[in-house]
Every structure is written in structure tokens, then in C-alpha cells.
Amino acid sequence: MRRAVRPFTIEKNKSKRIEKETSVRKKLKAKRALGWLLNFCVTFFSDKFVLKRYEEAGIVLGATLSDMNPVMGGQCDELQSLFDRKNFWEKECKRRGYKTMTQDAFMWRGGWGKPLEGFGEKA
Length: 123
Fold this sequence. Notes:
4 helices; mainly alpha; flat; about 0% strand
């Protein structure tokens, strides 16, 4: 036997869904605007500053990946933001003509302190 759904419940769920979609759209629009502003401002940073930020982002991500249990990887909420941060600085270093490092090199540096060979050299 099928239970009847009240129209009020349907309208209430629909309005919640619309509010959620609107909120997501606003957040995306703000993120795009901030991304554009950061991309514009980063062109004025010195090469030394950009290289330092790239190294820090890579080391933090490398340390996180080397210490993380592979089974728990999907439960790390900040992992995507760490990848995004490293990729942003990596693209900027590449745009300026510097060599980029592999993720393994950053894992060795962040997890076990091995020095980064060839870091900061022009390609």
C-alpha cells in the first residue's frame, strides 16, 4: 500500500533544495572572483617568494601523504585543498620558467627530510 505524500512536504523539500543550490552558486562565484584576484596579484610577487610558497605547499602535502594510511585517504577533508594549493604554486613556478618537482620528491622531503635536488633551477 502506497502512502500519500502531503504537498506541503514536497514544497518544503523543494525550497530547501533551491536554497542549497543558490548557496553553492554564490560560493562558486566568490571562489572564482578570489581566484582571479589571486592570479592577478601573484604576478607581482618575487620569484623567491613564489618558490618558497611552492616548497612549503609541496612539503606539507608530502608529509601528509607519507604519514597517511592509504585506507583512510578518502576521509581526509583537507587533502584536496592541499593538492590545490600545491598545484597553484607549481603552475606559477612553471609559468616563470622553473623546474617543477615530483610528488615523490616532496614526500621524501616532508616525510623523511631528504633535500630537494634541483629545486629552484631554471628549466
